[in-house]
């Protein structure tokens, strides 16, 4: 997956504004090295990140390349703009897929970024890396979620013809304060999975059957996911067998971490690279579905699902 819009920029890692002069940048780099060095009680990961930041902006030439979005590891417009359709090279049957993954959040991001720039102001490129980096975190989070949903959809498509996937399913009846859609609903012989694709910009983990992490800001992802799943499945008179929150690999300590259950559905935090195998194998503690049951559940869902 491309670098997340929530990832810290080299300037943020060094603790300087983007318009800092070269002398201030050099002082900040030396200070960050001292503070993060493992030999003086610092964090090895941050120490490495500071060194990488310096390679990106430590010289006028490298800094100019990064600011243009052309430096190594620097985001480019193509990293975040909608990808152009590409012809399939794999002839194997893919999962049946309905809806537009990430479409709702793409539209929401465009509305928010235009409003933030200012009504009446010309916005030449809403995915310009410098613009995205300067935007408030809540706007960058919307774009990060869209990218996460698109990446998950690409993975889910490889499940095979035994599975059906619905993306961006409307959940207007889920309740106040909840997003009006379910990211993905996956049906197959191993169960009915309600899936949320997320990028909070950092590591998350389970505590008491809910996720915690610095980027969550009081959110209760599994409770919210359960409510949205219920809004979709209850009219169809079916129940999800598992609730999955999918995050970038580096944001989960384990490939698959099990929680408890909510309303009879098993909960799990899953690295994106583990998602397809987790669904094919089934989540421990969640029931599988027989072939006849899958067809019946699919028919019921098709009759009630609407898209956001």
TrEMBL record:
SUPFAM superfamilies, per database record: Chaperone J-domain
Boundaries of every NERD domain copy: 144-255
SMART domains given in the database record: DnaJ (SM00271)
InterPro entries from the UniProt entry: Diphthamide-biosynth_chaperone, DnaJ_domain, J_dom_sf, NERD
Domain J per the UniProt entry, residue ranges: 9-70
Transmembrane segments: none
Gene3D superfamilies reported in the protein's UniProt record: DnaJ domain
Protein name: DnaJ domain-containing protein
Superkingdom of the organism of origin: Bacteria
CDD domains listed in its UniProt record: DnaJ
């Amino acid at each position: 997956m491309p670098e997340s819009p929530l990832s810290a920029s080299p300037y943020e890692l060094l603790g300087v504004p983007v318009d800092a002069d070269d002398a201030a940048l050099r002082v900040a780099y030396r200070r960050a090295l001292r503070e993060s060095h493992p030999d003086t009680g610092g964090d090895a990961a941050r120490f490495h990140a500071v060194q990488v930041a310096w390679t990106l902006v430590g010289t006028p030439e490298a800094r100019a390349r990064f600011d243009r979005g052309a430096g190594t590891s620097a985001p480019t417009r193509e990293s975040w703009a909608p990808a152009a359709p590409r012809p399939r090279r794999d002839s194997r049957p893919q999962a049946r897929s309905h809806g537009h993954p990430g479409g709702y959040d793409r539209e929401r991001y465009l509305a928010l970024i235009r409003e933030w720039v200012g009504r009446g102001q010309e916005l030449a490129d809403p995915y310009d890396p410098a613009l995205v980096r300067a935007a408030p975190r809540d706007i960058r989070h919307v774009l990060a979620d869209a990218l996460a949903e698109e990446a998950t959809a690409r993975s889910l498509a490889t499940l095979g013809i035994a599975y059906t996937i619905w993306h961006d399913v409307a959940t207007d009846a889920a309740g106040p304060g909840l997003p009006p859609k379910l990211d993905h609903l996956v049906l197959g012989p191993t169960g009915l999975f309600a899936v949320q694709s997320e990028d909070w910009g950092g590591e998350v983990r389970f505590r008491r059957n809910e996720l915690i992490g610095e980027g969550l800001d009081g959110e209760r992802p599994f409770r919210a996911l359960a409510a949205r799943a219920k809004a979709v499945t209850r009219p169809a008179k079916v129940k999800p067998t598992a609730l999955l929150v999918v995050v970038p690999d580096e944001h989960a300590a384990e490939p698959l971490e099990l929680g408890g259950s909510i309303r009879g559905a098993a909960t799990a935090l899953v690295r994106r690279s583990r998602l397809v195998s987790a669904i094919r194998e089934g989540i421990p503690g969640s029931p599988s579905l027989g072939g006849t049951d899958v067809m019946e559940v699919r028919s019921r869902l098709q009759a009630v699902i609407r898209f956001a």
